[in-house]
Fold these 4 entries.
Entry 1:
Amino acid sequence: MRQRIITALWAIPLLLVFVYFDTPALGFPLLIFLIGLLAILGSIEFYRLATLAGGQPLTIFGVAWALLFVISAHFDDIYVTSSLLASAVALPLIWLFGFRREKPLLSWAWTLVGILYMGWMLSHYVALRELNHGTELVFLTLFCTMACDTTAFFVGRTWGKHLLAPTVSPKKTWEGAIGGFVAAAAAALVLRIALNLGDWELPLGYAQTIALGCLIGLFAQLGDLLESLVKRRAGVKDSGSLMPGHGGILDRIDSLVFTGAIVYYYVIWVVE
């Protein structure tokens, strides 16, 4: 617990700096550097897990394409994204079948999933940051996801009795999941009120804010369970050891992977 608190004390302020500041000389948000780094480190950990699970993914290719997806989000060009997706599907397939590795289809699937999971999904944070009121929307996503994670942990630890998914993550409980879900919705509402008292503004009504908080609470926990499933398949407890008290990068960002995309599409499809 002490290591978790120490890590949070330096990681959270650093994260907020990357979200808030732009790079005027370069013309894009500072956040792109952080998301790119997370995509690289997260991909490396993911492909390590894939290898332990019996696959032979193309790690270098997957890491490079994950980073390209993050960079391409800044340009918001459908042709660039489509080209990246097509090459992510086709090139590993040609390589793996051409060189006749063992289990080429399985290795191709792991390679592609890693690119989409760490590259395409995380790239939505860059796209979200560049929307109108993008800084506030990214803060909302992070704040609600962290509230969900923290509350689920403490509620499950204190009152949890009914296991949520014992074959996937034996310590998660229904009590913790419900607590995290409620906390995400409450955090969204609190942040909207707080931001609108100052110079910042969330482009969401109260009902939209609560609905979005509920979606974040749901998909944050689904992301956590998905990463637990991959770790269970690989036979390991943590994805890595880069973050003391938390495990690896994937262990820390697993609940954030889907929530950025959920908030982005909610805003452009429902709000705008």
Entry 2:
Amino acid sequence: MGTGEAWRDAKVAASFAAERAARVPESRTQIELLLRIVRGRLRGTTRIVDLGCGDAVLLTALLDAFPEATGAALDYSPAMLDLARERLSRFGDRARVAAIDLRTPDWRAAAPGPVDVVVSGFAIHHLPDERKRGVYGEIFELLAKGGTFLNLEHVASATPAVEALHDDAIVAHQVAAARAAGNDVDPVAQRKAYDARPDKADNILAPVWTQCDWLRAIGFVDVDVFWKWFELALFGGTKPCS
């Protein structure tokens, strides 16, 4: 079962962290929009959880934006947790890092609630669909009333033809980013590297619209897809205030 095993490899983790903007289109836009949504909350933001945090880029952005907030960075990969500790070290006691396994509800022990905001970035798609729904329910329980959940995620294309468009667009972005950095990249070689990427087998993708329906069924309100670029999406919702 693919559950993100590739990300436990220190080389894979370090490579992604160092090359995020080159590998993931519109990385800055994703974070700016996430921050805009959190800033628009009707309640304060003082307790944050970054679930499947990777190198904690989302939690870092939130702690910078909300100086009174504290946060927990939780992940399955020891390699990613090392990167998260390094990135978050400047926040001192405002940030803590802990190892979790989203395959069971036991991860909740590392994040005693209630919390104001839960974010996740490219992590939950490693789980089977039934477990994705379970995690969303656990997040709902963790949130305070009026709490916000935002998932920046790799989602399924509607058809194989759209998936092919996504793959072509990703490779074109990677080639353009490499050339902008002064590297001469062969598009054919880049496509072969993309198709052979070590984390590919860990992807268990679900349509974003289906996942939004799951959130509504759990009880989230104001559920929406706030941003989408082919198979990349930012979606989420709010726990009712009453």
Entry 3:
Amino acid sequence: MGQYSIIAGTFGKALAVTPVAIGALDSRSAWEFENQSGNLGNNYTGSQIYVGGTGNVDVILAGVVGAQDTVTGLNLAPIFPANPSYPGFSGGTGYTTGIGLATSATSLVHKSPANQPAGLAVDITASAMATVGEAGLNYTNGAFTITAQGIEGTIGVNGATGAIETVTITNLGTATPSDAFAPQGRGGDGNGQIVVQSLGEVTAITIRAAGTNYSVGDICTVTQAGSGGNCTFAIAAVESLLPAAGDVVRFAKVLEGTILPAAVAYVIGSGDATDLVALK
């Protein structure tokens, strides 16, 4: 038998425990007397757990939370509709379509140094664009560079004549609108010409990694080498998450009759001890 000192009256309430999968946590209290939602959850809100049958007990301890204030929504409107309103989204210049780009954040909400917003990464679609000015002849498909301006991209050509038909810019370098240049490294008769139409304005942003510690209204800037570093957007929605698998604590080989010496929020179904009872 496990040992635990119980003084009469220490525990006034008991509740049979139903362990749950880590993905099925419900933050509402499992105790009816303290649950005001109308639906019971599986949060034992700091209870102690009696173990009726020997085995492992897997729990989330009281006070343990998941990632806090993760980003769930972005505001891509030019003006963020707060009160007062302030500028939000700007497409910036010099960006190219990319995934997993880091961001930096400016927040109007005071946070401690240990809880600064960080970790938000985004995928962007950018309108960096050029058109075919002169098609030329005898070019080949593939990547080209313009060394002097640091421009990079690819061209697609007519299979019969080698005339340039399409162009995609992957790095605008120092190009400006209306710049015209010949694609280097793709052969050709020297008459092919590509004309820059836009400077890489971001047209769409989606969340790749949600980060932590953000607040609605934070202004974020997309970081990308070679860009103007001036694409900004506002945080529209955040969500704090419940604990995850890495937060589970295992009490191993707990003896029958033991009361765990810990305040417990959730009992996880990966343990094999039986006849568990929550006590308050």
Entry 4:
Amino acid sequence: MSDHFVLFLSLLYFFVLWLFIPKITEPRNLANLSSNMWPLLTLVIGQMFVLIVGGIDLSQTSIMAVTSVLGAMVMSGRLDPVLFEKNPLWGVILSENGGALGGSIWALPVGILVMLLTGALIGLLNGLSVAKLKMPPFMVTLVSMFFFSGLAIYLTRSENIMYLPRGFVALGRGAVGSFCVALVLALLAWFVLSRMVLGRWLYAAGMNIRTALVSGVPTSGVIVLAYVFSGFCAAAGSILYSARLEMGRPTLGDNLLLDIIGAAVIGGISLYGGKGKVIWAVYGVLFFTILANSLNRMNLDFYTVQIVKGCVILIAALLDVTRMRLLAVSRLPKGGA
């Protein structure tokens, strides 16, 4: 099918929505669509790399939570003793004056650096467990999801950390900052997948890891790099979402995992590995963002929205399965005399 099929489907769906919900084209709603699309795209791009090598990363949302908390602990300018005096880090890193670098000119760059490095480090741990220890990606990232989600809550005692630097908060205002971050990551991902040997290695490892290994592809290193990049993108997404909320939140991303996987699958990134393009990720995020926006405009209950999203993702997964089977049949040798 055409690379642009999901784009056409998104435009058609948006047109049908406009007929029944005219307010969906209002500037305010369009701005909301844009501001929701770019942070999600940063997460889907990272997930795409892991799916291409035949894995999956369920820990992205927990990486968002723990990096949001750690970054806020570095940058916060003030903390309420009533809320945080029982925190295990109170008096060590945290105080009434805020985090470790609260009020310092270094708070913003160091805080962002801590978030990105933490995300990449967690991705490295996931990648090494999958590539070197040969553990199932689902189990590895599931354990990471529970562990780091729990760690984020433990470090904050479930309290949000506020009073972040103005420069950090500015990243979450409007769609300009999030668009720039998503654009940089998208261009980087496109360059790697389309113009570098590493991109061919990623696809080869996802298509058939044994064949790739025999062909000289450093499959272990490729898989590790995919998970590192996924963790890095999750931290970048955490920066954007934390800036929008103006706080470090220990439950950040709790309801985003379905959106991340769903947007990737809807875009056409195969769950079987070996297939994925940046443009597919963009189109998948576009469709999923429009879908989520339309469901919210209908004032549906939370569980109804989740049911509809789940059904759409299931249909996309079934289409992926059907496509793979048709490709397998088409490659079978034809009978002859």
